[in-house]
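Any chance you could type out a protein's amino acid sequence plus the matching backbone structure tokens because I've never seen that pairing?

——
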Amino acid sequence: MGPSPAADPSTGALGECILQIRILVDCREFKMIKKIIFGLLALVAIALAFVWFRTRPSGDIGKYKEYYVDDQVVNDSSVRVTFFGVSTLLIDDGQTQILIDGFLSRPSMTTTLLGDIQSDSTAINRILRDFRINRLRGIFVTHSHYDHAFDAGYVAWRTGATLYGSPSTLNIGRGAGVPESQLQAYQPNVDLSLGNFRVRVVPSIHSPGSALNDEGLSIDKPLLQPASFKAYLEGGSFDFLITHGGKKIYIKPSPNFNAGALDSLDVDALFLGIATVTKHDPTWASDFYRENVTATEPALMVPIHWDDFFYPVSDQLVMLPKFTASVEKDFDYFIEKTRKDKIDFKVLQGTRTIVLF
């Protein structure tokens, strides 16, 4: 019987050499794998840091406390406005209530982006109760994006108020089960009487550069919830002129303008969407101010549509995130301009009320 392979010196040496080579290769592969893993982790960390930074508020609303509306005495007949974020405004004279827009659920960013959403009836009912929204006659929706119209159907159904809007908004109402008797299509530039209020719907245009790029697209059938936020198509944009006892309030949620459209209009109070104005070039921003503020000559201007609507309604709203706007710059711009024009600039925090007259 011949010698076993293990006894062969040359075979043993070769085997040891092969083993060492394998160990060396395995080490190099392991080091390479480690580098890849650490590289991927670093990329994930950078991405998360970027997302965190970009979703942080674009400014500190606390810097503007000197412009906050102080506690005010509200008489039964006072005309007052309560702010619920974005451009959802409750207008009340002690007898009649009018709601501009209807966005009270305010689902989180994760919930909104990753799945279908639906109105939070518990949150809405709490707001209706806590703020005594029990004399609501009409709901007027700026346009049909979800951050304006999302809960308008539920609020109309719950309160019995008439829902006024574009065909898209009325289909949101139908999806919420609002009877046809409570749905009223807009009649632009016609004064509508609700109690002692007169409401005029004014055709407008959406803010430029919308991420959805759906201006003019319509919701053509009843929109049932839950649904994607992308199902809430713009469907046309509108402003509102509200008159009470000879005093005039103009509400313009979308930061844009129709050149010359407001030249003949003087108002007492202007509620103006301002976010993203300073993201445009200075000429556009100047034109925006001239066409909306200079043209209407208000005694009072209140900015709206400045808050991050992925947070719940509260008395501590925060500014829109960095990836959307630079709200501090927007505030500073309008504060400087209105100071020169001797216009009172006031900031409404969430759920705060301002007495107009």
Remarks:
- Helices lie at 9-54, 109-114, 121-130, 146-149, 152-159, 167-175, 282-294, 327-340.
- Residues 1-7, 47-54 have pLDDT under 50 and may be disordered.
